[in-house]
Design goal:
alpha/beta, Beta-Lactamase, Glucose Oxidase, domain 1, TIM Barrel, eight-stranded mixed sheet, eight-stranded parallel sheet, 27 helices, 22 strands
Length: about 750
Amino acid sequence: MAREAAPSPTVWAGPRKLLRRLRDVMAGPGDAQDRLDRIAKLIAGDMVAEVCSIYVRRAGDVLELFATQGLKPEAVHNTRLRIGEGIVGAVAADSRPMALAEARKHPSFAYRPETGEEIYTSMMGVPILRGGRMLGVLAIQNRTQRDYTDEEVETMETVSMVVAEMVASGELIETSEQRPADGIGIAPLRLDGIKLNGGLAMGHAVLHRPAIPVGRTVAEDSETEKLRLKEALASMHKRLDELLAQADAEGPGDHIDILKTYRMFAEDKGWIRRIVENIDNGLTAEGAVVRVQDDTRARMKKVDDAYLRERLLDLEDLAFRLLQHLTGDADGTRAHMLPEETILVARNMGPADLLDYNRSNLKALILEEGSSTSHVAIVARALQIPVIGRVKGILDRVEPMDPILVDGGNGLCYIRPGDEVRSAFKASMRMFEEKRAHYRAAKDLPSITKDGVEISLMMNAGLLIDMGHLQDSGAAGIGLYRTEVPFMVRSDFPDTATQAELYSAILDQAEGKPVTFRTLDIGGDKVLPYFHEMQEENPAMGWRAIRIAIDRPGLMRGQLRALIQASNGRPLRVMFPMVANADEFVQARAMLDKELSRAARRGLPLPSELKIGAMLEVPSLIFQLDALAKKADFISIGSNDLLQFLFASDRGNPRMDGRYDALSAPVLNVVKEVVHRAQQNGLELSVCGEMAGQPLEALALIGLGIRTLSMSPANIGPLRDTVRACTVSALSDFTEALTHRPDRSLRGAMANFARDHGITV
């Protein structure tokens, strides 16, 4: 039977007194197990609970009962639950608290007879967290039905920090037991992620954010702690201002807007208020920051929205910075201690943190999380640092100074590689550098096939910093400038003057080469922080791009006005995204005509040449190209979305990865039809999706009649070699034959053609 507990008082005293008593137990006599037993008894009494149980995480994702007040004592060290098993396991899996008035009715409830817990009705569990790691679960139970208050849950979360100190210290079990048993420090590993920025690098692992020793978590005097917090905040704000000034002095770019937004969040009143509230509850300034930081990390696990995750990441990053200032490491000494060949490894990072590091020694960045639109990825691309994101579990599998190889282009990293792998990788790096040197030397060679057909190789861009690649790559111009990217890294909507200044700078740096500005393609996965609308179940096919522009004409007209001002008498090319029928294009063009008339009335210089086009991403537009041609000058196939809609296959869904191939008869026949209709109507035609930058796909497009391709700058050099090695006459006949084949993929056939004709792909 379970041990009987004496009747508890009905009034709960709050956290401050409990925290002080826990601190005394932690500092008192006895071994770790004795102190943990006393802690469980203390919590049960103070929280008016018949049971308090403490579960500690062991290797293999097992939660072991380490101490209890109220359950059978023989269950200690004998009761084990997998993460995800039972209510305790569910708390651990989600790293979120659960408070249940009737625990046995919950679908996650798992009965363990050896504990004697069948007589208890209510249950509350909170995760034991330290530095983002889930170390265990702290739980209380009551016989009667009890509705735990939010204040009680918050107190338990605060108390769990004290327990986390003991677990993290290694007093109960070795800290190595909390890591996966996969040969840490011994076995080589290959881990997959996603490409955030291409390139090859080799070096040694440096873990971003090594654990900061917090020291005391229970306060002696709350007012003193508030004063320390105020001083640390002022110091942090000053340091951020210095970083911003330093970045500003290095030259303009969209990463400046990112840093300004980050600086603004450093004064977020809600975030600071939560820290102060935890100090009022009895924690030190450091303890309060860690408490809020752990809550932020737990919230991040539940948030899918890209913008909200980025905001939460900013707050987590700021908490770490604030801890540095509280503990006397405000100078960030890690920045001056990097080995010469550093591979930085992090769960995620804020943009300012990346700038803290010595960039001459920083060779690559690996993130456990991250996305192509995350602020740190954008800044890293501006600094030309290879980046891999979403490398699951890397922080559990790498030790400081482990040798690492990074293949940014393929989203791969090799930890503790063997001699053979290292040797092969070094050879790849030499070849990579030789190819880059070759492409730089060949950048001014004409992109003309062996039989004299000119193929225009254009570049995609989305940030001012990208414009430097225009001359380096030898691109013929900007085939797609994604105007939404600068909007996504700002905290508010840029006014017309700000937009005009940016677009003018783009045209200045293009030095006369053509630039095609795509109007705002927002919605779907491209979220603006200051544009709040209802979420949709299928945003990729919902209210986005030109649909938003038609419904919110103020957005479109402001942008078109800025583009006209920026042209200042120079040629201007404007493209509308995701046009599904000719009428949508007509409405968008009418807005442009109004802005042209407005500019003329004000005596502003109009574009010397104006070309207006549509992005062909929605299959329905194919059947209205004849009508569109009466109003448009050009169309550009956006292959990414076109294939998604053509195959009804969400390109963001990993289960769809590889199911359908761009090199297949349905796709080739669609392109063939578009080429035919464009030629009939005298429409300029290009392709600016992923297909354009891949050698085999590009060969097929050229064979079908495409003469303009727009791609990532890194792909222009290889594509120039491919173009100069092929003969269009032979390629056209072969590609036409492919359009009649039933194969799921024609990739092998195209690769054989390239090999047989001496074309490097």
